[in-house]
Input
Amino acid sequence: MSEQIHTNFIEHTDSGALYNKPGLDLLLVQTPLCRAVIARQGAQLLEFQATDREPLLWLSPKAQFEPGKAVRGGIPLCLPWFGINRVDPAKPKHGLVRTQTWELAAAKELAGGDVELVFTFRHNGDELFAAPFFCEFTMRLGRELRLLLRLENLAEAAVEYSWAWHTYFPVESVREIEVHGLEHAEYLDNTRELARFRQEGSLTFPGEVDRVFENAPAHQKILTRNPITTHSDNCHSVITWNPGAELAATLADVGEHCGEFVCVEHGNAFADSWQLAAGEVAEAALTIQR
Ligand SMILES: O=P(O)(O)OC[C@H]1O[C@H](O)[C@H](O)[C@@H](O)[C@@H]1O
Output
């Protein structure tokens, strides 16, 4: 591993110091514009809050910080496959990069006071995923949050990649929110063997909801006390998820907190998966604010 990057806005810390649950190395970013916490494992943003605004991300009070286990909350990046691996369902859900250590390759302050962190991850190809690939994940942290993904297929043949930023948003009560921006779109219902339906009106969360919108619009709005808006570039899939009380009771890191968040995830999965030729690069971006 390369040497740690030192700047006046990054503190190298860990989950023991910040959450009293030792286990993972964390970066604490503090600037006049915002505060963020990022796990080196998965380059996973755990917290983001612009100064004088409400938190943008939900981190479960029951989150576990164990190396090799995904942390419940923030923005885990699911890649190189999203959800259950369709070729071999015994493989871990949501790919492999969310439980691997990423490198902080660069960190700098931009004009205007935003800071930019660049994380990289190289996969050499193994039994989990044969193709080698390289990911660059850039976070711009300011009054809003901007994420950029650059994925390079290092294989000598074409490879399919599916992925998503699996964002957990905080809400007062998931049963009282609406997600706008998916009206009339078709979705695959993951609670009904991926059967296809059409979204009538705005999306609500009366119980378990697990929907995959392909070819989805670029803007969504989460209507909660202080609305959250998302704008994506080249993210054609939106996945919406809340487990509902019954399923949440079986998730040790969610439990009774299931009403406090909604996942509105952006990426390219199912029919929108990226087919990358040998050496091909693809990019996508997501901006979130409230
Ligand atoms: O528990 P995880 O592996 O983090 O997955 C959490 C959820 O992620 C996505 O939203 C999927 O559509 C859901 O089916 C899944 O349950």
Summary: Residues 70, 83, 93-94, 166, 190, 210, 239, 241, 263, 265 surround 6-O-phosphono-alpha-D-glucopyranose (CB under 6 Å).
